């Protein structure tokens, strides 16, 4: 009890200890804000890296039709699987038939690569529904639907919905295409659609090789007209610039592929890793476990780089903690020197020298605890209101820290991860205690008689 | 004023106490074989030249230091061989110190300084149970030394005499069996010294605690039960005519 009283009185009587507390507070606040912004960026990066990837994908190469059918029925019966759909990837070339603007690319007659992803409705109307843009009648918000106008028929929730008999579509199709029954619906990435000025009803010609390419053999090509039925937008602008979504069956027919899918996309309960492991066990008799991979497995290299970036940042943050708590060493060292006589007095009153050492340890602990709690609370508050604060600074000074032009999000992404913040708090208290140990040990080794004579 | 915890053992029994120091490669023999017996309730004065080892002797008796040789028992406990924890406990519970320079903690109020002795080694939970009683006792002691109104004052706002009164109250809180006073009036003016002398002697009589008082004040030394002179590293009894103690001792010191 004596230690608590004396430590408290020591600290409140010395403004320098307030400086130490503030240095810990400010250091931790900086860590919390930087970590939260870093986590926000990493979260955005993960979403960006993921694009349209399902939780788990199962490669179907090497499986015959019977095995594929067995796999599909197993997935349909699995209670952990919420959506399972086949996918197909085909590269194609699109021609620019019309040049809307002479100032911007693409130019008339140019051709561009586009990656076609063959999807089943189940994915787009299910887990990927959120990527559908405002120009997709089925995925549009109420406001967008109002903008697009109402249809003469109730629109189904099919993202590839295209109906030549519907007035809504007839108004948008070129006159010479209004009776073409072989138009295939396609959803373009929003940036790609913007670049080519594609709108619902635009007819696009795409060409591809038919069948499996073989070295040394001439491969037949095919071209077909597709009708743009909407757009989609993932957070990955590069993905949206180069991809288009097509009904899987129509894409298989277009590309002349024997197999109707390259992979089985699976969405389910739990984390993708948990789902992968469960599926590996459940499907071991049908599929090679190595062919079942979570989206994180497939993007392991990129995610590894992101995690590495986070690790480097954590180490850098740890140095901030060290610097923030180092001032404690100086403060406590000075305190022990100034209060040497008090050590002798405490010993004369019956305290052991070790107890005198604990007094200074307690001083350090109070400072780091107060600084850490203040730093965590202040940091969380600052991170929470970071964007409004930056807006305020911009309004007052014209200075913008975060350039919206460079990113695909409007505000600085902030994600407060409380679990890691607790670790930063613990690290801060541990570092503070570590820096207090030396002065405290010096106090504990003090000879009481010498201490009483100390001037 | 409460009595000290009764003990049938002599307050101090020292035989052949030796204490040496090393200074710039030289060995200084400060105490060369001190023999001392102090009975319970007895008050003795130790006088001698500055640097003669009086404070060193007091530190040994107060268990703040260990002798290089000899035997020492405090309150019947062999403190030379006692473990550190036992020595700390004895110092806390049975010994009270009064120093020349008061040695109050400047950050604590007078009341908190007095209470400090009762707080040491007590867990916060125990302290909660005892706090009111100890506070009451500390206030009573401050009242006894004439500082009831200054309980909440910091030492910086007290005069030298008042600080020494707080130090005396602090020394008494644990009801010590042995009071060790190291020149308690050495830093005070004559009038204040006289007041502190009266206070100390009065309290010693009330509590019947044994007292070893180191002083240069022969007047004060002459008022105690016995006067010893530390000379050449040993204690010598000073026998002086009762009507001229100061003059007699002065010729010897």
Summarize the entry for a quick read.
The complex is a heterodimer of chains A (455) and B (253). Chain A is an alpha+beta fold.
Characterization of the model:
The complex is a heterodimer of chains A (455) and B (253). By secondary structure, chain A is α+β, with helices and mostly antiparallel strands. Chain A folds into two domains: 2-46 and 303-453, no CATH class; 81-268, no CATH class. In chain A, 52% of the residues lie in helices and 15% in strands. Chain A has a six-stranded mixed barrel. In chain A, helix 2 (15-50) crosses helix 14 (353-384) and helix 12 (300-338) runs parallel beside helix 16. The radius of gyration of chain A is 32 Å and the shape is elongated. With 253 residues, chain B is an alpha/beta fold. Chain B has one domain: Rossmann fold, CATH 3.40.50.300. Chain B has helices at residues 54-61, 84-94, 110-119, 124-144, 160-172, 190-207, 218-222, 245-252; strands at 12-23, 26-38, 43-47, 69-74, 77-78, 95-98, 178-182, 210-214, 226-231, 234-237. In chain B, the strands form two sheets. A six-stranded mixed beta sheet of chain B has the order 6-7-8-3-9-10. In chain B, strands 2-1-4-5 form a four-stranded antiparallel beta sheet, with helices on one face. In chain B, strand 7, helix 6 and strand 8 form a beta-alpha-beta unit. In chain B, helix 3 packs across helix 4 (124-144), helix 3 (110-119) packs parallel to helix 5 (160-172) and helix 5 (160-172) runs parallel beside helix 6 (190-207). Chain B is globular, with a radius of gyration of 18 Å. Chain B starts with 11 loop residues before the first strand and ends with a helix. The model of chain B is unreliable at 1-6 (pLDDT under 50).
């Amino acid at each position: 009890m004596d230690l608590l009283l004396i430590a408290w009185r020591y600290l409140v009587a010395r403004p320098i200890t307030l400086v130490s507390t503030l240095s810990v507070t400010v250091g931790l606040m900086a860590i919390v804000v930087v970590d939260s912004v870093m986590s926000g960026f990493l979260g955005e990066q993960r979403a960006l890296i993921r694009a349209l990837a399902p939780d788990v994908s199962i490669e179907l190469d090497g499986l015959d039709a019977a095995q594929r059918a067995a796999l599909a029925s197993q997935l349909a019966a699995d209670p952990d699987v919420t959506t399972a759909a086949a996918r197909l990837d085909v590269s194609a070339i699109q021609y620019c038939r019309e040049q809307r603007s002479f100032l911007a690319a693409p130019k008339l007659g140019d051709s561009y690569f586009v990656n076609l992803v063959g999807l089943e409705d189940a994915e787009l109307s299910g887990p990927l529904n959120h990527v559908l843009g405002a120009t997709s009648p089925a995925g549009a918000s109420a406001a967008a639907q109002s903008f697009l106008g109402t249809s003469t028929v109730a629109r189904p929730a099919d993202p590839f919905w295209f109906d030549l008999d519907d007035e809504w579509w007839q108004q948008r199709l070129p006159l010479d295409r209004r009776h073409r029954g072989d138009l295939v619906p396609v959803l373009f990435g929003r940036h790609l659609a913007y670049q080519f000025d594609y709108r619902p009803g635009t007819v696009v010609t795409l060409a591809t090789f038919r069948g499996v390419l073989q070295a040394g053999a001439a491969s037949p090509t095919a071209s077909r007209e597709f009708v743009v039925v909407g757009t989609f937008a993932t957070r990955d602008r590069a993905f949206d610039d180069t991809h288009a979504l097509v009904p899987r069956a129509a894409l298989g027919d277009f590309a002349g592929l024997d197999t109707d899918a390259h992979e089985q996309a699976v969405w389910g309960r739990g984390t993708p890793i948990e789902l992968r492991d469960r599926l590996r066990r459940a499907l071991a008799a049908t599929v090679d476990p190595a062919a079942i991979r979570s989206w994180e497995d497939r993007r392991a290299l990129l995610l590894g780089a992101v995690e590495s970036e986070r690790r480097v940042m954590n180490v850098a943050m740890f140095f901030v903690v060290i610097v923030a708590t180092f001032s404690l060493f100086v403060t406590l060292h000075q305190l022990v020197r100034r209060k040497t006589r008090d050590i002798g007095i405490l010993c004369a009153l019956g305290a052991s020298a070790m107890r005198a050492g604990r007094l200074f340890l307690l001083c350090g602990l109070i400072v780091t605890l107060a600084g850490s709690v203040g730093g965590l609370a202040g940091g969380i508050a600052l991170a929470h209101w970071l964007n409004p604060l930056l807006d305020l600074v911009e309004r007052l000074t014209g200075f913008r820290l975060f350039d919206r032009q460079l990113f695909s999000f409007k505000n600085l992404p902030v994600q407060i991860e409380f679990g890691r913040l607790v670790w930063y708090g613990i690290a801060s208290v541990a570092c503070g205690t570590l820096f207090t140990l030396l002065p405290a040990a010096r106090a504990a080794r003090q000879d009481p008689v010498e201490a009483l004579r100390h001037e | 004023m409460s009595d000290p915890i009764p003990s049938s053992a002599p307050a101090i029994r020292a035989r052949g106490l030796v204490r040496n120091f090393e200074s710039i490669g030289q060995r200084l023999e400060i105490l060369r074989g001190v023999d001392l017996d102090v009975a319970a309730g007895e008050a003795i004065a130790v006088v001698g030249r500055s640097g003669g080892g009086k404070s060193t002797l007091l530190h040994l008796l107060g268990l703040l230091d260990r002798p290089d040789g000899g035997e020492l028992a405090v309150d019947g406990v062999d403190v030379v061989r006692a473990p550190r924890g036992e020595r700390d406990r004895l110092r806390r519970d049975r010994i009270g110190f009064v120093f020349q320079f008061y040695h109050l903690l400047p950050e604590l109020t007078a009341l908190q300084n007095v209470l400090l002795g009762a707080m040491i080694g007590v867990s916060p939970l125990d302290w909660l149970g005892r706090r009111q009683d100890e506070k009451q006792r500390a206030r009573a002691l401050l009242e006894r030394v004439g500082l009831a109104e200054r309980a909440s004052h910091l030492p910086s706002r007290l005069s030298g005499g008042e600080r020494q009164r707080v130090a005396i109250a602090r020394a008494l809180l644990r009801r010590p069996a042995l009071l060790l006073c190291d020149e308690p009036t050495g830093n005070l003016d004559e009038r204040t010294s006289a007041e502190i002398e009266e206070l100390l002697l009065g309290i010693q009589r009330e509590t019947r605690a044994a007292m070893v008082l180191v002083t240069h004040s022969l007047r004060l030394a002459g008022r105690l039960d016995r006067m010893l002179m530390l000379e050449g590293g040993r204690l010598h009894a000073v026998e002086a005519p009762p009507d001229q103690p100061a003059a007699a001792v002065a010729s010897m010191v």
